[in-house]
Amino acid sequence: MNINKNYTCKVVKPEDFDLFWVDVLDDLSQVDLKPEIIHDDLRSTKDIDIYQVFFNSLNNIRISAWLATPVSKMSDKPIPVILQLPGYQNDPLIPKYWPLNGYASLSLNHRGKVRSRSEFDPGYPGVLTHNITDRNSYSYKGIYSDVWASIDLLSSNYFDLANVKIDSNRIGVAGSSQGGGLTIIAAAMRKEIKAASCGAPYLCGYMDAIQLTNTYPYQEINDYLNLYPAQLDDVTNTLAYFDGMNFADKITCPIIMNVGLQDNVCPPETAYAIFEKIISKNKKIYEYDGYGHDAGRHLHDQVTLDFFEYNLGK
Amino acid sequence: MNKLRPSDFGSYWYEISKELSDVNMDSEMSVIPIRSNKSSTLYSVSLVGVGNYPLKGYLSIPNAKGPFPTIYFVPRNASVLEIIPQGTSNAIRDQFVIFSLACRGMRNSDNPHVSMYPGQLTENVDSVEDYIYREIVADTLRGLDFILTRPEIDKNSLLAQGNDIALLAAALHGAVTHVVATPGYFFDTIDIAKSTTSYPLEEFNDYLRLYPDSEDNVRETLSYFNLRWHAQSISANTLIICGDSENVYSKSNLTPLIDNINGKMTVKESENSAYKDGLFIQEWIADEIGDGVPVLPQHWK
Questions:
Q1: CATH superfamily of the A17-312 domain
Q2: Which in A99, A161, B13, B84 has the greatest CB count within 10 A?
């Protein structure tokens, strides 16, 4: 199949897009994070300390995360940190990969995920269409807020309490699939993010994606519209507030993107479309022909490490 | 590795089967309208497993005259129960009966027991009788019992697909005619785990790091699940996806498994591409139980 690399998504940015998100961020800023940081003896090794982290996010929903730090580097000098954002339905990993490469890392379990689902749990499938006709209660309003709250946590001095010295001036963000989409959201709305690595971005060009593919999870929206065809306009309107395309013009940090040209989950056309809209002058897309939703990760991992070393140091 | 198969290996698994047969399945089905369409209907399925544990699954049946070849997506080492795996063309539901089951601890089957991920793989792992996978395997077999009750299925074409559990299902239940499996944790587990820091195997390393005195017990428990000892009981046509030469589950490391499976054997060494590996799997399924034409997502055509 030939990919149209000049594809443009049809989503239109709502006039009150910025106002909507300013209000959300304002609400989020009122939340007392109330963080807890607990050393996890089971998951720690002689080289890596693992912590279970808990904090409040929008609507005071309790969110969990894994923090991983390299034992050898936890001296007085703060180290850079990578915020690792999860895929749609997989379980967030304990991010031991990053400490092995010299970074601290926070792996977010946003609301609805394992360890963060006691107060919000639409299930999978389900999250993508939960309250999809109401921007004020749509699932991703909370999930995006969880991402931003985790950045608030990283850029605060809360981790000092556990003697974890993170350099809040050197925060990177990484993720693939939904993690890639959330990377877009993080980099767009938080200037604390100094570098971003985005793979196979989901949540970008929703209404195009549902016509370009017939696979889950985008298929959830098709399922919804098949049952409720009269709600097409409401769905389209809600998603316009959440579409990564409409955040792209706020991204100014260095960013790389990797895309598999045979991606059967997040159509590569939408990756090209959002890459084109990102305004950062320091951006690069890596195309992997012969690769699917993995987006050539096997070949791309070293590219990502080099990118973060260049932009964040070690 | 425990060098020998446990002496009571057969009776261990017989006891589980007997325990399961003593529990009434009590299956119930209800249509899920939002996931149904002109071509197929999706049902929520309720079953009862050993210990009278309530289990949930999804059953998709083509809206046409059967019988149909059937794909059973066995329980995963992950929290989410999928209708079909992410990235699979939804059109596969037009040609195949599809059943997926959440074992105890997964979402949908997490009342009363909720598993953590990571965490599930080592739940009670130092006890042969209490290890969570003893019951998870039983849940998997219950799923097969349920499939066999459906008049829509073609019993000559029943494929189990997944990780290690797909192979255990084929070894322990004669109904499985085909298997697609990507082994990830139940082949010589502890020895293989020591050569990696990646999950899921890292779960076992974590556990033994904190509880080193448990190693003998853990090895004993896992010996009952070791695919090495189950291989000879597998007579289904089998496709194994193994890692590349640098992977802990490379073809060479899995040779004792591959060589001892009695069914027609196909081995695919992963190309670390979801596309290339996935295409191979869909073509194999189409050749083995389909009409020869793979059902592919748009971007693989």
A1: Alpha/Beta hydrolase fold, catalytic domain (3.40.50.1820)
A2: A99
